[in-house]
Known about the structure:
single chain, about 80 residues
Amino acid sequence: MIESNLDARIIKICCMGLKPQMLGKSIAQLQSVFMKLEQSFGFNVCGEGGEYESAVFDCPLFKHKLELVESEVVDLGNDYNP
Length: 82
């Protein structure tokens, strides 16, 4: 996704090691963090298994870039991301 110039951003986290400050950041910005988590916890850098969810805001196929106008962080208080 990074090599294909997708602006994919984290919109949901559910894994130890991921923090609320990471929400809204691109996968490219977090690549080095993801690689460290993979080595430490077996984290799947692609998010498979529910570690995170992403949304694509721009890519070469889009005619127009999506702009995030407003956002809200909702903390569900689960055991995977205290």
